[in-house]
Write a structure and sequence with these properties.
alpha+beta, 2 domains, 3-stranded antiparallel sheet, 6 strands, disordered N terminus
């Protein structure tokens, strides 16, 4: 009831009432990302969300997630070959280098022609995804949940020219 009284008094007097509820961990973190980041909250809405501010929001979402773990990091990676238009994945590795090497090896095993495999994404204690088109345009993304990583991967693929032809090829989570 006191919260309702505060709002009514503020409305009648025109004086801003003190905040009735504490900010969530995400809101506190996001307040440090800058105002422009707030306008880019939706994935897939044709705005460029790959700016430092929106990456800051992604980090806020991850660190305030109920899935966030404080234990030792577990790394994952995606490697991609433009020649064979395929990928290799790795997850739950103890360090970044091991995850990247595993993903590269997995990619190279696709075909003897997969000589151009490169690490497309590495991540830790979160989910990663890769989306691509049949003609080799691809994008990657990461997030606290698979659907978030997939949304970022789709958006990046579309921004690189894949448009409506982008399809999520794979998503994995590590360390959660």
């Amino acid at each position: 009831m006191s919260c309702v009284k505060t709002i009514i008094i503020a409305a009648l007097t025109g004086v801003a009432a003190p905040q009735a509820f504490a900010q969530s961990a995400y809101e506190q973190c996001a307040s440090g990302c800058g105002d422009a980041a707030i306008s880019c909250g939706s994935v897939g809405d044709n705005r460029d969300c790959s700016t430092p501010r929106s990456l800051c929001l992604a980090e806020c979402q991850f660190s305030s997630s109920s899935n966030y773990r404080s234990g030792p990091p577990k790394y994952g990676a995606f490697a991609y070959s433009q020649i064979v238009r395929g990928m290799g994945t790795a997850y739950d590795w103890p360090d970044r280098e091991s995850a990247e090497n595993s993903a590269l090896n997995s990619c190279r095993k696709l075909s003897p022609q997969a000589t151009d495999c490169t690490v497309a994404l590495w991540f830790w204690n979160t989910c990663g995804a890769l989306a691509s088109t049949a003609d080799g345009i691809y994008g990657t993304g990461y997030g606290a949940r698979k659907y978030i990583a997939e949304g970022w991967a789709m958006q990046v693929c579309r921004q690189y020219g894949g448009g409506d032809n982008c399809v999520v090829q794979k998503s994995v989570c590590t360390g959660l």
